From TrEMBL:
It holds the Pfam family EAL. The lineage of its organism: Bacteria, Deltaproteobacteria, Candidatus Acidulodesulfobacterales, Candidatus Acidulodesulfobacterium. Residues 619-870 form the EAL domain. Keywords: Membrane, Transmembrane, Transmembrane helix. NCBIfam families: GGDEF. CDD domains: EAL (cd01948), GGDEF (cd01949). The chain crosses the membrane at residues 12-35, 180-203. Residues 474-609 form the GGDEF domain. The keyword DNA damage does not apply. The keyword Transmembrane applies. This is Bifunctional diguanylate cyclase/phosphodiesterase. GO terms for molecular function: cyclic-guanylate-specific phosphodiesterase activity.
Length: 870
């Protein structure tokens, strides 16, 4: 961790000075403490020694005198002399105390009061010292010796006849020592500071001179070339560490010379790049933008022109030259030759070079008031760059013509090269965006396959036609056309062949419609038309004519050359007879198309009054039922068991959707109807709520799995519309976490309905969920071309064989072959197989012989609200 110093300490001299002062304070404090303790010990030691010495000397003096035979008077004189001496000397006081034996023999005399020290010495017969009121007190016992017994007849050898007490006041010594201590501490405190100041002054001077030299050298650097001066100016900073820093700076300058760019060159490039921002206005007026860039470039370097050559297809070549001023005809001619030469040397595609001779070069002038002189080839220097784009398919060259005398070598040459690159990107991007914009404008209104109008534009036209017809009190027809058995053609001959059929139908519509009619592809194999001014009879005639021409239309399939034909079912509604609202008209035409299919296909059905009433009633009731299911939460999860075909025990369930409708009889009895998904899912998809139904169903199923601690696999069929809902995958993940679902137990079933055209989106959907641990199954395998593509492109775990083939394994050899082939493919790929629509024991036994892994159907288990575990 880096320690950040306060601002004050960031100067080296101040930092050193502060360290010196801090060190001095610490050393002085420690020294004061140590000296104080040491002084006290010395004083105590000296006081003890002095007191002991005086006591012993006093005793020795008394002993020597007593040996000569003192009388009592002489003793008293000696003791009085000691008292007087003690009074005159405040430092040392000596007192003699007589013992009880002496008092008994010679009588008591006036003497001071015995303190605890004296008493202790009388008792212990040993010397003792202590501190009393700050004084050092030493007491020495006067023991009777053999010689003493001559006078002290009542004493015994070793008795304490008296005690000499010496009291020493150490304050005198302490006062003398304190002066020395203060002087020593002062010197200890001041000397490091003085040394720090001295070192700081030397360092500051050396650093200041060195930094001044370095700053001078750095400030002299104006361009990259001046970086060399740092190497040439050898500076001695007097300290090895500082010299190393300077050498590091010199090394850095050497490396900077290799990578740095001069400020003016950098500003040159930045000013140009500021103009290279592509906006919608730039795309719209790109030539004006190029002129602006040309003018900006001329502020930095003399540029005569900028040119571009772009090819959008083999027959479309655009050559544009942008001049800063009006060139002469001679200059134009010379520059045309330069363009051809540079393109040839650039090695662009030969068809562009060849094609250029057939195309005019357009010369654009920024300011016609500026007249350029006649220029020769040697006056111009041209630099170019080329670009080839795969998507969109465009390619070309951009170039810049600068005055030959301008220096374009070295860094400046690199800058001009970068300008060319940016110019290429700008013009190339503008061209690409322009082409994309044109394509978008077209495909925003057109279907990419048939070039008919698309669904969105058709609905806008339909709304407009309703409003127009209201104003003019006129009629018009709405025609809904649907391929009969188009899925079969796709399955048998592939999607490419199916697409050709759709294009063929589109051509028939374009050919048979009137000029004022509008034809559109609504989606998949559905087409729609608006017939302005047409009543019921005319609408029927136009529609029937289209039906007959489509019936007569055939295509040869690519393998055998066999002619393949198709029919269509057509529904018609007419404004205002059928309905007066655009949505109602469309809905009714769609409904009539389904009636035509039910009537046997290859039929035109026009709406009558009773059809309109019945259709609107049915759609309205089903729409209301779906919305009620969402609002009232009457969606139910049902579960159909999937069994192990060998053991007959359930290994999984398929999740199915039901709506529970309440009904009350005339007698007031309450009952419930269970509605299967087949009766309302298309309405739910048409009104955009299918994915909401799916998520509600999923959450209820997850809740039941958690509540009942369900541990088998769960197969879930998803509505294709759910795949394009942005947060669908995210919500599925959140639900699995909320209910703590083992994602490896959840299997999502992929069907062909509307998903193959969104294959990339489906691929992303599968990858995201597979990453989270979910598994996948292909539903209705064998019924469509896409089933095999799913196996190839997706990580499939289960293959559910279409029930239509299962039901026909005894009667239809083709169905039997499909089932056998599907099982063989799955086993080769390590995928488990599930046979659907098992409705008899006979079929189940046959599938056991085929070695199918699992079975599902009404025979093995009907859908129910509860799980079948055993």
């Amino acid at each position: 961790m880096q320690i950040k110093l306060p601002k004050f300490f960031r100067r080296l001299d101040k930092f050193i000075l502060c360290i010196a002062v801090s060190t001095s304070i610490v050393v002085a404090g420690v020294s004061a403490y140590l000296l104080s303790n040491f002084g006290d010990r010395i004083i105590k030691y000296e006081s003890d020694t002095t007191a002991e010495y005086i006591s012993r000397q006093t005793f020795n003096t008394m002993f020597q005198i007593m040996k000569k035979g003192w009388n009592e008077k002489q003793v008293m004189t000696f003791m009085n002399a000691l008292k007087k001496s003690s009074k005159n000397d405040n430092t040392v006081k000596t007192s003699i105390f007589r013992g009880a034996v002496v008092d008994k023999q010679f009588g008591k005399i006036p003497q001071g009061k015995e303190n605890f020290i004296v008493k202790k010495v009388f008792k212990t017969k040993r010397p003792f010292h202590a501190v009393v009121n700050g004084n050092i007190v030493y007491a020495y016992p006067l023991k009777a010796q053999k010689m003493c017994l001559k006078c002290h007849t009542m004493a015994k050898k070793g008795d304490v006849n008296g005690v000499i007490e010496v009291s020493f006041d150490p304050s005198f010594l302490r006062s003398r020592l304190e002066g020395y201590f203060i002087l020593i501490i002062f010197l200890i405190f001041i000397l490091p500071i003085a040394g720090g100041v001295f070192v700081t002054l030397i360092l500051r001077r050396s650093i200041k001179n060195g930094m001044k030299s370095i700053n001078g050298a750095v400030e002299s650097i104006k361009t990259v070339k001046d970086l060399k001066t740092l190497d040439n100016k050898l500076i001695d900073l007097k300290f090895e560490e500082f010299n190393r820093i300077y050498n590091g700076v010199s090394g850095l300058s050497e490396r900077l010379r290799d990578i740095a760019v001069d400020k003016d060159v950098l500003e040159f490039e930045i000013k140009l790049l500021e103009r290279f921002i592509i906006t919608s206005e730039v795309v719209k007026d790109w030539k004006e933008h190029v002129f602006n860039m040309l003018n900006e470039m001329n502020k930095i370097i003399k540029v005569y022109n900028v040119f571009s050559i772009f090819m959008e297809d083999e027959s479309s070549i655009e050559i544009e030259v942008f001049w800063k001023g009006e060139p002469t005809d001679k200059t134009k001619k010379i520059f045309d030759e330069i363009i051809y030469q540079n393109i040839y040397h650039n090695g662009l595609s030969t068809f562009i070079v060849q094609g250029m001779g057939k195309h005019e070069i357009f010369h654009n002038v920024s300011d016609r008031n500026v007249k350029l002189p006649d220029l020769k080839k040697e006056d111009l220097m041209v630099q170019t760059k080329k670009i080839i784009l795969e998507a969109p398919h465009i390619g070309g060259i951009v170039g810049i013509g600068v005055q030959s005398e301008d220096e374009v070598e070295g860094v400046k040459g690199l800058v001009i090269n970068s300008v060319l690159t940016t110019l290429l990107n700008v013009i190339g991007s503008i061209k690409a965006i322009y082409k994309y914009t044109k394509d978008l404008e077209y495909y925003a209104t057109r279907d990419g396959l048939t070039n008919l109008y698309n669904q969105r534009v058709f609905m806008e036209f339909l709304h407009y036609e309703v409003e127009r017809s209201k104003r003019h009190n006129s009629t018009f027809g709405v025609v809904f056309i649907d391929f009969d058995n188009f899925k079969l053609i796709n399955d048998m001959y592939g999607h490419n062949f199916g697409d050709k059929f759709l294009k063929g139908i589109a051509d028939i519509l374009e050919k048979d419609k009137r000029n004022e009619d509008i034809a559109a592809r609504y989606g998949g194999d559905e087409f729609v038309m608006i017939l302005p001014g047409a009543g019921e009879e005319q609408s029927y005639m136009i529609a029937n004519n289209i039906r007959e021409n489509i019936k007569a239309f055939t295509l040869k399939e690519p393998i055998t050359g066999k002619s393949v034909g198709a029919t269509v079912s057509i529904g018609i509604s007419v404004y205002p007879n059928s309905a007066s609202d655009d949505k109602d008209l469309f809905l009714l035409a769609d409904n009539m198309m389904y009636k035509a299919k039910k009537a046997g296909k290859d039929t035109v059905y026009i709406a009558k009054e009773e059809d309109a009433v019945a259709a609107f009633k049915e759609v309205s009731e089903k729409s209301k039922m779906v919305m009620d299911a969402l609002e009232k939460d009457i969606i139910l999860p049902y579960f159909q068991p999937i069994i192990d075909i060998k053991t007959g025990r359930p290994v999984a369930h398929e999740l199915l959707m039901r709506i529970k409708l309440e009904s009350i009889s005339s007698k007031g009895d309450e009952s419930f109807n269970i509605i299967s998904a087949g009766e309302f899912i298309e309405i739910a998809e048409s009104i955009g709520v299918a994915h909401k139904l799916d998520l509600i169903l999923l959450e209820k199923a997850f809740q039941k799995i958690k509540d009942e601690n369900y541990s088998l696999d769960m197969f879930i069929n998803l509505s294709p519309k759910s795949l394009i809902v942005a947060d669908y995958v995210k919500t599925v993940k959140q639900l699995s976490l909320k209910y703590r679902i083992d994602t490896s137990k959840i299997v999502f079933e992929l069907t062909e309905r509307e998903t193959v055209k969104n294959i990339s989106l489906l691929e992303k959907f599968v990858a995201n969920l597979k990453y989270e641990g979910f598994r996948f199954a292909v539903d209705d395998f064998g019924s469509g071309f896409s089933s095999f593509m799913y196996l190839k492109r997706f990580p499939i775990d289960f293959l559910k064989i279409d029930g239509e083939f299962i039901m026909g394994i005894f009667e239809d050899k083709m169905d039997r072959a499909v089932v056998v082939s599907s099982i063989s493919i799955a086993k080769e790929m390590g995928i488990k197989t599930i046979a659907e629509f098992i409705e008899s024991e006979e079929v189940l036994n046959e599938l056991k012989e085929f070695k199918v892994d699992y079975a599902q159907g009404y025979y093995t288990g009907k859908p129910a609200e509860n799980f079948v575990i055993c």
